[in-house]
Specification:
The protein is mainly α. Helix content is 66%, strand content 5%. It has 2 domains: 35 residues, no CATH class; 75 residues.
């Protein structure tokens, strides 16, 4: 019985033409909660973008702490550069922050 309810909610009859989505006329894909799939995907992009933004900021904070550590200070004196850990934290934090912001900005389109 629950599968029938799930299947009925997954494909709901719609009055408008959705030919641009590749679906048959009169049908639109919805998730089990009744939300159109395009809107659900948009929300998912925003959630993933927010998670990546938070992870990126945490990695940048860890990179800041690592940069000001004693080991990084010794490495800068001896080699002239920071430790590999600090560099990887900076790169990962920067990428996570940029991808997270991109996900938040592109995932917020209303459909």
């Amino acid at each position: 019985m629950q599968f029938a309810i799930f299947a009925a909610r997954f494909l709901a009859i719609c009055e408008s033409d959705h030919s641009q989505t590749g679906l048959h006329q009169g049908w639109t894909a919805v998730n089990p909660f009744g939300t159109p799939m395009a809107l659900a995907i948009s929300h998912m992009k925003r959630i993933i973008g927010l998670a990546l933004l938070v992870v990126g900021i945490v990695l940048l904070c860890m990179a800041y702490d690592s940069y000001h550590s004693a080991a990084s200070g010794v490495s800068r004196v001896v080699t002239g550069t920071s430790t590999d850990k600090t560099m990887w934290l900076l790169v990962g934090g920067s990428l996570g922050t940029l991808v997270g912001l991109g996900g938040l900005l592109t995932g917020s389109k209303k459909t």
